[in-house]
Amino acid sequence: xxxxxxMKQLPEHARxxxxxxxxxxxxxxxxxxxxxxxxxxxxARVSKTTFYNFFHSKEELLSTLFEQLAxxxxxxxxxxxLKEKRVAYKGYAGIRRYMELCKQHKPITQVxxxxxxxxSEEVEEVRRKxxxxxxxxxxxxxxxxxxxxxxxxxxxxxSQAMVGAINEVIIQHLMVSDEAEVEPVxxxxxxxxxxxxxxxxxxxxxxxx
Length: 209
Known about the structure:
Blueprint (H helix, E strand, L loop, with lengths): L13 H13 L4 H4 L2 H8 L3 H7 L3 H26 L6 H15 L1 H10 L5 H23 L8 H23 L7 H20 L8
Helix pairs in contact: 1-3, 1-5, 5-6, 5-8, 6-10, 8-9, 9-10
């Protein structure tokens, strides 16, 4: 399947048409709540029957769209980390790339981080999986450079916390201002991340006492 983030026009296949239409509509001022299935099929240029051949509901369409977009975002983050050869800069490279994508695709980021919250249990499950995958990327990036005294549980919990912090900064800072710059914010978030894991390594957290 072609990357949704790179699509500029309606694709050829029906399922991709529906996902592209959903992305376009959910990321528009109309948003998820005000968009109907009829709106989606009209933009996708398919019938309602075709819609129900692929999705049972608008919520299932959103969860599928979320999963695809989150996968594309995180693939880009992983590529940025792999491309950076300096171990100390890998975390920064991943955070910066994630923030670049969020700024470049603000309406889509709004859907992923804000509008999708609380829509349904199915969507929440996809949100949790995306959060956990991002945390796993952070965990894999740092675990090789931390001493064995830092437990796996501590590293995983810290990674989860960092994902929450990064997303909150994006919502509160990057999403509300067109003037917000990625570079200084990414550097700050990386310093916070490094500081948190350094603290773990030095045995300063309650869990390691």
